């Protein structure tokens, strides 16, 4: 009977004076008046629970015996003096609640202590000396509403409770660590306090996982600083680019920034005073002197150049060129190079001296140079009639009516002579000129050509050279990334075609439909293929009447020099030889007539042995 069960249970207790009315002569639930102390009964007078609180009980909680009470739903032994490990209550799988708080229970609670207790709603274990981890089997008690584990010596992390109905989980005053599970974050903060290493809502945020407000503010400030730095860097770069790309019309000092090269020809010239030596950028940090490459001419100082009134001649790819009339008479041209650091100072000076030794009627001679690490100035004599480019493409005026054929022929021949001289004098250079184009062919008072800007490939910065210098626009460089001894011949060929057609070569450098590059030579070829050879010649070219034959031969020579297949392209010797053998017109009438008759053959539009047909324009 239940009487026997409870008396047996009482036997295992010690200090049980409070249970004095528990005796075998009465039934625990028989009569309200004599109901046993601390026994809770159902309506049917069966034992439903034990509420043995505040009785100073000690001894053993005999769970095995209690298993014989089929309707037992609740047990409370709160505020007694029980000690030892937690009773094995999971055997009482129908329990709805149990209260062991305020005793001296100790030791670890087995991890599976609550397994199978599917009806349990309230577990009160607070104010004992339990140690070890919170058993994970608690998370499986699906109906759990209230759990009190506070004021023990529990450690480790709080398991991840997921029960929907949980109303209270108090784990305060233990030694728990880690973060409060999200499912418990809305509970009262006091349920978690007293655990030094516990964090997360409702406690303070965990440092490792969530940044504090201060950290967030610092991060935001840092992002702003970085953004500001990036924006200012972009602004600086844009300003520099803008400065660099200012059109050549802007007034410049010889030390101002190199503007971007434009594809169209710009013959604009402006008078400009360089200002005092102090205000000129050239004077800042200027500790070097002009170095004269020859002894046979009058010397002057850099200051003399800076003091002279200057005219901007133009802005090339490497820097601007200035015309400076010295007080003592001579007129010089100073070209400012920013990007000439391919070699060190010694090699640079050596190369300059080498160029300075070159003397030829068709070369513009280097007079002096100035070396500074970040910029170089090359000084040469001013050449009277400007460049071949300005003569071919500049605005037509009564003073600049357009070059006639005899002059053009003489110019091409002069260029050929200058070129072969460079090949002979600079044999170690694969590309002795390297930058042969019409703006680098200057014309003296008799319209004889003088080559300029030659022999610079070894000293110009490689990147810049590859980007801007004429040699690197050649088919062999475009296709195979290499230059050869015939590369200058190709530039010469383009120059010849430019002189004959009056077309500006850079305007014909295009990517073709098939991916192939087109150039002035391919344009000329296409016109010839259409049998409109006469159409290729410059309409502004005067005095062609007796020169058609030579013009045609020159056209062929130009195309031979522009042959894309290097094997088929003439070498410099052949090119020069063929060009120099072309006859120049003189006052000999016989010559006129023979020349004219040759032209007449072509003007009949018959195909010639060279494969050209020719129709004379008027
Ligand atoms: N010694 C000179 N006498 C007269 N005009 C010159 C002289 N040197 C250069 N020029 C002219 O000054 C202008 C600018 O020349 P610059 O050499 O600076 O540029 P570019 O030849 O157009 O291009 P790049 O820098 O690619 O050579 C050109 O029209 C050029 O013909």
From TrEMBL:
Its EC number(s): 2.7.11.1
Membrane-protein topology: Single-pass membrane protein
Catalysed conversion reaction: L-seryl-[protein] + ATP = O-phospho-L-seryl-[protein] + ADP + H(+); L-threonyl-[protein] + ATP = O-phospho-L-threonyl-[protein] + ADP + H(+)
Subcellular location: Membrane
Superkingdom classification of source: Eukaryota
InterPro entries named among the record's database cross-references: Kinase-like_dom_sf (IPR011009), Leu-rich_rpt (IPR001611), LRR_dom_sf (IPR032675), LRR_N_plant-typ (IPR013210), PRK1-6/SRF4-like (IPR046959), Prot_kinase_dom (IPR000719)
Record domain Protein kinase: where: 307-592
Annotated TM spans: 213-241
Annotated GO CC locations: membrane
Pfam families noted in UniProt: LRR_1, LRR_8, LRRNT_2, Pkinase
GO molecular function list: ATP binding; protein serine/threonine kinase activity
Alphabetic keyword roster: ATP-binding, Glycoprotein, Kinase, Leucine-rich repeat, Membrane, Nucleotide-binding, Phosphoprotein, Receptor, Repeat, Signal, Transferase, Transmembrane, Transmembrane helix
Primary location group: membrane
Family: Belongs to the protein kinase superfamily. Ser/Thr protein kinase family.
Official protein name in the record: non-specific serine/threonine protein kinase
Organism this protein belongs to: Kingdonia uniflora
């Amino acid at each position: 009977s239940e009487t026997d069960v409870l008396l047996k249970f009482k036997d295992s207790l010690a200090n049980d004076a409070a249970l004095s009315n528990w005796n075998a002569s009465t039934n625990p639930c028989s009569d309200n008046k004599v109901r046993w102390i601390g026994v809770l009964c159902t309506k049917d007078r069966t034992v439903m629970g034990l509420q043995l609180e505040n009785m100073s009980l000690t001894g053993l909680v005999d769970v095995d015996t209690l298993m014989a009470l089929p309707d037992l739903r609740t047990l409370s032994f709160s505020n007694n003096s029980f000690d030892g490990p937690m009773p094995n209550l999971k055997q009482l799988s129908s329990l709805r609640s149990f209260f062991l708080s305020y005793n001296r229970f100790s030791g670890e609670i087995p991890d599976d202590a609550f397994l199978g207790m599917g009806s349990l709603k309230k577990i009160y274990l607070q104010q004992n000396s339990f140690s070890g981890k919170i058993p994970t089997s608690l998370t499986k008690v699906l109906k759990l509403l209230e759990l009190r584990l506070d004021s023990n010596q529990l450690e480790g992390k709080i398991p991840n409770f997921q029960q929907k109905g949980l109303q209270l989980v108090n784990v305060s005053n233990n030694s728990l660590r880690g973060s409060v599970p999200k499912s418990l974050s809305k509970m009262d903060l006091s349920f978690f306090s007293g655990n030094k290493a516990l964090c997360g809502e409702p406690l303070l945020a965990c440092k490792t996982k969530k940044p504090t407000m201060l950290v967030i503010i610092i991060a935001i400030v840092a992002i702003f600083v970085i953004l500001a730095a990036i924006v200012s860097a972009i602004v600086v770069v844009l300003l520099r680019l803008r400065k660099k790309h200012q059109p050549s019309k802007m007034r410049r000092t010889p030390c101002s920034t190199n503007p971007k090269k434009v594809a169209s020809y710009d013959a604009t010239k402006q008078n400009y005073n360089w200002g005092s030596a102090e205000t000129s950028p050239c004077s800042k940090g200027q500790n070097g002197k002009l170095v004269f490459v020859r002894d046979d001419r009058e010397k002057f100082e850099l200051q003399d150049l800076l003091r002279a009134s200057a005219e901007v001649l133009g802005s090339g790819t490497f820097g601007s060129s200035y015309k400076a009339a010295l007080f003592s008479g001579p007129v010089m041209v100073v070209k400012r190079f920013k990007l000439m650091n391919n070699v060190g100072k010694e090699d640079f000076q050596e190369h300059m001296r080498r160029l300075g030794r070159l003397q030829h009627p068709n070369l513009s001679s280097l007079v002096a140079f100035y070396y500074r690490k970040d910029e170089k100035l090359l000084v040469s004599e001013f050449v009277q009639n400007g460049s071949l480019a300005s003569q071919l493409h500049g605005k037509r005026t009564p003073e600049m009516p357009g070059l006639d054929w005899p002059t053009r022929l003489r110019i091409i021949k002069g260029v050929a002579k200058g070129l072969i001289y460079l090949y002979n004098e600079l044999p170690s250079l694969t590309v002795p000129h390297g930058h042969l184009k019409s703006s680098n062919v200057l014309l003296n008072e008799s319209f004889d050509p003088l080559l300029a800007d030659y022999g610079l490939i070894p000293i110009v910065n490689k990147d810049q050279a590859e980007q801007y210098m004429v040699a690197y626009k050649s088919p062999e460089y475009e296709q195979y990334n290499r230059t050869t001894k015939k590369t200058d011949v190709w530039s010469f060929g383009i120059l010849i075609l430019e002189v004959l057609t009056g077309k500006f070569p850079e305007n014909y450098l295009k990517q073709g439909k098939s991916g192939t590059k087109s150039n002035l030579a391919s344009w000329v070829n296409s016109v010839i293929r259409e049998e409109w050879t006469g159409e290729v010649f410059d309409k502004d070219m005067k005095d062609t009447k007796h020169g058609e034959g030579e013009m045609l031969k020159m056209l062929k020579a130009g195309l031979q020099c522009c042959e894309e297949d290097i094997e088929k392209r003439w070498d410099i010797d052949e090119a020069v030889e063929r060009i120099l053998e072309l006859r120049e017109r003189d006052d000999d009438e016989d010559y006129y007539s023979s020349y004219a008759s040759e032209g007449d053959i072509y003007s009949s539009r018959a195909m010639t042995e060279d494969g050209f047909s020719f129709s004379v324009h008027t």
